[in-house]
Design goal:
mainly beta, 3-stranded antiparallel sheet
Length: 209
């Protein structure tokens, strides 16, 4: 969504960022008392660069995720936001609802994208109003963006609409969330060029990304 902005705009907007305090994880007003979920990825470490293949400069597939420590719950919700988008609120890159609590992972490319059908998940609307994974595409020259992968366990399974948006998900989380986990991946598009961000922690087929 933002990769076509000229470098001069990216520089001018460097101080304009939504902020981590605006992501869902920090904006529910109910952090105290929530249990903790350990959310990780085999493709990147916490606060480390996302593989190029998971961005708009690569294949644009969603990264693999794993989690542990989920308490007794009815369903899981995943939301991915760009905390550094030059917008009042973080850009939503993905929403997945009604994940079964029996699952403990999500495979690479499980979320649908422009060239990938995904794995039949119940996917909500991103900030482009599409029920897909929106690959990271920060403005050139805007600096490093932090992408917040947020997983929530819900005590009850709400009846979500076909493609729920951020507001609908927020309402459900305020009413039913009992545990949460957070994983941060980063990506930066420097001035006028694409930087291939090698991740030494990548394993398996993702090592080349």
């Amino acid at each position: 969504m933002l990769e076509k902005l000229p470098d001069v705009i990216g520089h001018a907007l460097q101080g304009v960022r939504a902020g981590l305090e605006q992501i869902v994880f920090n904006n529910l007003g109910m952090r105290e008392g929530l249990a903790s979920i350990q959310l990780t990825s085999m493709a990147f470490a916490d606060h480390s660069p996302l593989p190029l293949r998971c961005t708009a400069d690569g294949e644009g597939v969603s990264p693999p995720l794993q989690w542990a420590g989920v308490p007794a719950a009815a369903s899981l919700v995943l939301i991915v936001e760009d905390a550094d988008s030059p917008t009042p609120n973080p850009l939503v890159h993905a929403i997945v609802v009604n994940l079964p609590t029996a699952s403990a992972s999500m495979a690479e490319a499980a979320m649908p994208s422009q060239d990938n059908e995904g794995a039949g998940l119940h996917v909500g609307r991103n900030s482009a109003l599409q029920p897909t994974w929106l690959p990271p595409d920060p403005p050139p020259g805007h600096g490093t963006h932090r992408y917040a992968f947020q997983l929530f366990a819900l005590a009850e399974a709400p009846q979500f609409s076909d493609s729920p948006g951020r507001d609908e998900v927020m309402d459900a989380l305020r009413a039913h969330a009992v545990a949460s986990g957070l994983l941060i991946g980063t990506y930066e598009r420097p001035d006028g060029s694409i930087t291939i961000q090698a991740d030494a922690t990548s394993v398996g087929p993702l090592a080349a990304g």
